[in-house]
Amino acid sequence: MAMLRPNPRGDFPVISESAFVDPTAILCGHVIVEDNVFIGPYAVIRADEADENGHVEPILIGSGSNIQDGVVIHSKDGAAVTIGSRTSIAHRSIIHGPCAVGDEVFIGFNSVIFNCTVERGCVVRHNSVVEDCVLPEQFYIPSTTTIHSNTDLLTITQVTQDATAFSESVAEMNVSLAHSYRRIANQL
Q1: Which regions span the lipid bilayer (predicted)?
Q2: Whether the Cβ atoms of residue 106 and residue 170 lie closer than 8 Å to each other
Q3: Is the domain 3-187 a CATH 3.10.20.340 member?
Q4: Cis preceding-peptide flag for 136 (omega within 30 of 0)
Q5: Whole-prediction pTM value?
Q6: Are 56 and 29 spatial neighbours (Cβ–Cβ below 8 Å)?
Q7: Separation between Cα atoms, residue 144 and residue 138, nearest integer Å
Q8: Is 49 considered catalytic here?
């Protein structure tokens, strides 16, 4: 069983029965995990910082998404973090709110997403930093790119069909893993 903890306000994670959360993962506070989500080893998802009124918005992980090994999802001052459906957050990435990541997005290894909106179908490749902007639908951020504002997006291209196919295959594989690991856990 994953390490599930309340935050100081007493909010406790809510996890769909069809999701798989690795036993080494830590989920703390106002975290909502929808159907068929895979949360890998050593992921940390914390909704525990409150705003000045003591309020904490949820961290929501949409259905069919995967949060891979070592990912950290957190937010400042109780702000919301939303991860859409069928979205992949790859190994050791950091998603720090306030932040909204849309449906069918791929965030590559070691990338940092902070204080921004990443709309549907975007691909952010490995070791990239995206902050303080809105990535419109279907944008492709190459590996090792740093985006600090909307004006930095002027040279960015649309997602290719190959990148979309890769993102979809990662999402499908991890939904399959969620089902397989749940089945194994039920047999133990």
Answers
A1: none
A2: yes
A3: no
A4: no
A5: 0.87
A6: yes
A7: 18
A8: yes
Structure tokens at 25: 């993962």
pLDDT at 30: 97
Mean per-residue pLDDT of the chain: 90
Residue 66's DSSP bridge partners are 38, 88
- Classify the C-alpha dihedral 78-149-113-134 as positive or negative: positive
Annotated domain spans of the chain: 3-187
Q: Which residues contact 15 (CB under 8 A, 6 or more apart)?
A: 2, 4, 21, 27, 31, 33
Name beta bridge partners: 38: 20, 66
Amino acid 155: pLDDT: 73
Looking at the DSSP bridge assignments, the partners of residue 81 are 59, 99
Nearest Cα neighbor of 40 from 17, 16, 59, 24 is 24
State the Cα–Cα distance between residues 44 and 55, nearest whole angstrom.
21
Report the alpha-carbon distance of residue 1 to residue 35 in Å, rounded. Answer: 17
Distances (CA, A) of 132 to 37, 135, 150, 167: 27, 10, 8, 24
